[in-house]
């Protein structure tokens, strides 16, 4: 872990553990290139993965003071943004990442996030997939 990750160590020590999401998560890239970004304070960081419940970021990302932090999600090349607040839930040192859950999303943020994820599933599918099928994947249980 990077130097900033150690600042989180006391607060995140109890969070060490495996996957806890019930809902499917999606790699936050498109063709291997970061596609969804987290802006918190002055820092812009590529998300590792995202779901309708939360996201993960590198463990060396400073999240500011306190456990809940404000963020803006951005898609590469798209002017739409989603604002909200999130809370770190677990730190997986072996993977070098921090998993965060959404505490609050702006008005219609959850609806727009769902649309983003449906589009991401369709864009990254190796076979043709309908919007209805993509929506079922987004809302469905974790497949991994």
Principal-axis shape: globular
Give a quick account of the main beta sheet: strands, pairing sense, barrel closure: 8 strands, antiparallel
Overall pLDDT confidence: 80
Low-pLDDT regions = 1-19
- Class by helix and strand content? alpha+beta
Strand order of the largest sheet: 1-6-7-10-9-8-4-5
Helix content: 10-25%
N-to-C order of helices and strands: HEEEEEEEEEEHH
Strand proportion, as a percent range, falls in 35-45%
Helix count from the secondary structure assignment: 3
Alpha carbon gap, first and last residue:
25 Å
Number of strands: 10
Rounded Rg: 15 Å
What does this structure look like?
- The protein has 144 residues and is an alpha+beta fold.
- Helix content is 24%, strand content 37%.
- It contains 3 helices and 10 strands; from the N terminus they run H-E-E-E-E-E-E-E-E-E-E-H-H.
- The strands form 2 sheets. Strands 1-6-7-10-9-8-4-5 form an 8-stranded antiparallel beta sheet. It has a two-stranded antiparallel ribbon with strand order 2-3.
- The longest helix is centred in the C-terminal third of the chain and has 16 residues, at 109-124.
- The protein is globular.
């Amino acid at each position: 872990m990077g130097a900033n990750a150690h600042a989180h160590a006391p607060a995140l020590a109890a969070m060490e553990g495996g996957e806890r999401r019930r809902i499917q998560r999606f790699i936050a890239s498109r063709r291997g290139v970061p596609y969804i970004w987290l802006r918190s304070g002055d820092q812009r960081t590529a998300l590792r993965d995202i779901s309708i419940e939360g996201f993960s970021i590198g463990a060396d990302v400073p999240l500011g003071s306190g456990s809940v932090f404000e963020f803006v999600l951005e898609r590469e090349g798209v002017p739409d943004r989603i604002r909200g607040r999130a809370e770190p839930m677990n730190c997986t040192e072996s993977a070098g990442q921090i998993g965060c859950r959404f505490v609050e999303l702006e008005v219609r943020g959850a609806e727009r996030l769902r649309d983003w994820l449906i589009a991401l599933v369709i864009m990254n599918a190796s076979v043709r997939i309908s919007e209805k099928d993509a929506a079922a994947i987004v809302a469905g249980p974790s497949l991994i």
